[in-house]
Amino acid sequence: MSDQWWFCLTHMAVEPDDGCPNKDRMGPYPTREAASAALKTAADRNEEWRKNDRAWDGDD
């Protein structure tokens, strides 16, 4: 078994490699804990890009 973990968007749950198709998942992540934080990580990154990427708002 691999040491990779995924966050399934269909079931809103952490899964090992053997799980739903990758098209329905975020990852892979190195730990179960990192996978469980996938939605927060994505939201935090989006907010950081929104604040710091001038092209985000068309200000390039």
TrEMBL record:
<protein>
    <recommendedName>
        <fullName>SPOR domain-containing protein</fullName>
    </recommendedName>
</protein>
<feature type="compositionally biased region" description="Basic and acidic residues">
    <location>
        <begin position="42"/>
        <end position="60"/>
    </location>
</feature>
<feature type="region of interest" description="Disordered">
    <location>
        <begin position="22"/>
        <end position="60"/>
    </location>
</feature>
